[in-house]
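Dissemination and training. As part of the outreach component of the grant, students in the summer workshop were shown how a complex can be specified as a set of sequence lines and then modelled as a single object. The example used during the hands-on session is reproduced here so that future cohorts can follow it. Participants entered these lines:
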Amino acid sequence: MKILLKTLALCVMAGSMVAQAEPLVIQEQGSFSAGGTVITAAGTFDAKKPLEPAGQTYHGDHASVFYQIPENPHTYPIVMLHGAGQSSRTWQTTPDGREGFQNIFLRRGFSTYVVDQPRRGAAGRSTVDATLTAKADEQLWFNQFRVGVWPDYFKDVQFSHDKAALNQYFRQMTPNTGPFDLNVISDAMSAVVDKSGPAILFTHSQGGGPGWYTAIKNDKVKAIVAFEPGSGFVFPQAEMPAPMPSAFDTLKGEPVPMEQFMALTKIPVLIIYGDNIPDKPVAMPAQDSWRVRLAMAREWRDVVNKHGGDVTVTHLPEVGIKGNTHFPFSDLNNVQVADVVSQFLKEKKLE
Amino acid sequence: MKILLKTLALCVMAGSMVAQAEPLVIQEQGSFSAGGTVITAAGTFDAKKPLEPAGQTYHGDHASVFYQIPENPHTYPIVMLHGAGQSSRTWQTTPDGREGFQNIFLRRGFSTYVVDQPRRGAAGRSTVDATLTAKADEQLWFNQFRVGVWPDYFKDVQFSHDKAALNQYFRQMTPNTGPFDLNVISDAMSAVVDKSGPAILFTHSQGGGPGWYTAIKNDKVKAIVAFEPGSGFVFPQAEMPAPMPSAFDTLKGEPVPMEQFMALTKIPVLIIYGDNIPDKPVAMPAQDSWRVRLAMAREWRDVVNKHGGDVTVTHLPEVGIKGNTHFPFSDLNNVQVADVVSQFLKEKKLE
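and obtained this result:
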């Protein structure tokens, strides 16, 4: 009996190991740039004076994309746009070394397009100059991303306490190589979905704003899943929300013409926020900033839905999913979070 | 008979289509950072003043890596380091949309690790500040990378004349986000091969120098294939070559202690140069710069081999492979170039 149980345990272990080790079958993968602009310097190029800009060109402000198409993919690929200080790596391996949403959704049969937005990562050529400084700021991010209040982790936070995980987390940040420009980014993202074909758009944080504008600019965006959008909520001029002050900043809506706003009423939208967001004002800037962002998302949901839209705001603790940071898609329970997303995609017939 | 031939033609077509469309079977894939350093600002962090650097950290100068492990891989993975102004995208889709060396060598059974070196691409956090300017410079690169002499392509150049290909080519460039530092890069590359395990290193152009230093620093580098190394040739102090003047610059060797130099005699090295490199001085800087680089590579080969090394310099036109640019691994005939590399790896028992 003891041997039988041991054998059984080994089989279960072997089973879960096989499940983990199931290979990805990729029909096609590669990279490309999309969108962007070209600057041409006045004058005539002289091949003997190659360091003179005269007559030379400069291609910049494009997005850079790595895509993978699994065998027999679902109709719509998923295009994934990172947040502030991040790149396509946001969606890859988690800080503690597990699979991120790139692999998880490939395994669930979706083509994935992970993007570096214009002026970030591999899409570094910016048409506007920039100065980059090595400013120490990681305790700010630890707090702002709701891992905890430095040096303490939130109780039961879905983030590994392993030092190596924090090292990887900080090192996955990468700076702007030019000014953040919502219009430049949404233009390039629109070019990305022209290349991918009709797609589901995942956005994170600062990527939320460019995400709404991408859907306004291109009806190939068939749905949006926005993780913790931090700004850029667009409202019709006549229905602008009152500014929302917090201990961090004052959050405002952004006015757009009604016909632009209406584009957002035509597609299903899921907005997901994690845990440790207070519901009443608190003195800590990092927490209080998310209080007003969640409140703004709910106000936005109500206005879009009033105009016939289909926006859901899921505050994860309210559906029993606890401890999530600002990065629910790479938190320790990211498979559970992926299940929430999959359920949404299934309900909206996007699988 | 006509029908039989048609059927045969269809079968051949179907056969080649199937060959193209063969899926990649990936046992594991993901991303990580390797190496780097940490700066800590003096003082004590105050969570209420998160924009003050006091007491905060900054992780920078690491490499960023995307890796893929196929089913039943060869013993040694291939670590791929880009050249100046490039990123890991160098090894991915070619400018004209075909598979690059990442896919080609995955298909040939190698795990691949494509790297963004410190201060480039997704590894953007530099511990040293930088100013980035949108300087028009692409006709310089068109010439320097030996696509042609702008606006003319070299006759029979292995580069698509399609405008879209040139657009992608220019847009795959991405700037330094901090000063180029051979020591910082080779430190991070050494950390990459610690993570990958004993590996074959592919380098390109400016990556050549850091490649030699990586092998000096870490004996897990089991072989190097250097595509058109442009600088950083290391020699024993007593055997430094004479400086080599060209219409572009004066190329010099770099002195290293004998025991460091000797590390490069312990591993097989293949150096590959493409076409349109003159063998006598010419006035055009772009061409003349490569004349001295090829000459320096040959001198380096002779010195390493004199000390018991195993360096081969393959100038592709000399083995009948014509029209290659500075990017043989993404040129139109890159499968043929991959065959040259595979032959080398086979001979050196590295498959």
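Residues 285-306 of chain A form the longest helix (22 residues). Students were then asked to discuss how this feature might be tested experimentally.
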